[in-house]
Amino acid sequence: MSLPLTTARAIMVPAAEAKLWDSTIIFCHGLGDSGAGWSFLAEAWGRKKEFSRTAFIFPHAPTIPITCNGGLRMPGWYDIIDFGSLTANEDENGIKSSYQTLQGIITEQVRDHNISSRRIILGGFSQGAVMSLFTGLTSEMSLGGIVALSSYLPIRNKLPNMITDANRKTPIFMGHGKVDPLIQHSWGSMSRDILLKQKCDVEWHEYDGLAHSADPGEIDDLEKWIVNCLKKDPVGGSKSEL
């Protein structure tokens, strides 16, 4: 595998067969982390034949004040007022700003690298997963899949009406620990139910004894799911219009 290319905006890991690059996985970190925190996915999957033509991008969130942490500045996709009530007083402007960042990365993959949007998987953990749900569901470009680990649906009083036809049927992988003390399991399952009512294609996984982190079994489940998503839209499919 090629060495990662670190920039101010993201860690980018080219495909092992870079000249034959035909798919991209974009994975967004949680609050206080960076793209490096999830780059192990490229190491774990990038050497396997199923991902030999897949590039990986791990974006960095901007450094912003986080209200619930006393205004301390840290990497965050949007502000959080109160960890006890993540959906109260949501930072809608911050969410929409980060949407523009992630949508810009997707657009670059299609426009500059000729990757079909249907061969782009957008996902994340915690805050990064929240952004992946929001960005993926509201994008006008049809994606290959959306991943949300330990997350919840943001702006849920508005988001159901913002889901685009382009991504209403996009496969969604949702994984959640049953004993998550930060983003409660009930918030994740409620978000799942809202999406199912919208006729979204959600595959739900929950893990006994898992707190606010990822589980090796969860990563294995996710790997299999992504491989299947990429098989659904083989190389040669039409490139989405910008």
UniProtKB/TrEMBL annotation:
MF annotations from Gene Ontology: carboxylic ester hydrolase activity; palmitoyl-(protein) hydrolase activity
Cellular component per GO, a single term: cytoplasm
For the keyword Hydrolase, the answer is yes
Which SUPFAM superfamilies does this one have?
Answer: alpha/beta-Hydrolases (SSF53474)
Where in this chain does the record put each Phospholipase/carboxylesterase/thioesterase domain?
22-228
Known catalytic reactions: S-hexadecanoyl-L-cysteinyl-[protein] + H2O = L-cysteinyl-[protein] + hexadecanoate + H(+)
> Which key words tag this protein in UniProt?
Fatty acid metabolism, Hydrolase, Lipid metabolism, Serine esterase
Question: Mind listing the GO biological process terms from this record?
Answer: fatty acid metabolic process
Q: What EC number(s) does the entry state?
A: 3.1.2.22
Q: InterPro entries given for it? A: AB_hydrolase_fold, LYPA1-2/EST-like, PLipase/COase/thioEstase
Q: What's the domain of life for this entry?
A: Eukaryota
- What is the protein's known function? Hydrolyzes fatty acids from S-acylated cysteine residues in proteins with a strong preference for palmitoylated G-alpha proteins over other acyl substrates. Mediates the deacylation of G-alpha proteins such as GPA1 in vivo, but has weak or no activity toward palmitoylated Ras proteins. Has weak lysophospholipase activity in vitro; however such activity may not exist in vivo.
Q: Which family does it belong to?
A: Belongs to the AB hydrolase superfamily. AB hydrolase 2 family.
* Protein's recorded name: Acyl-protein thioesterase 1
* Native source species: Orbilia ellipsospora
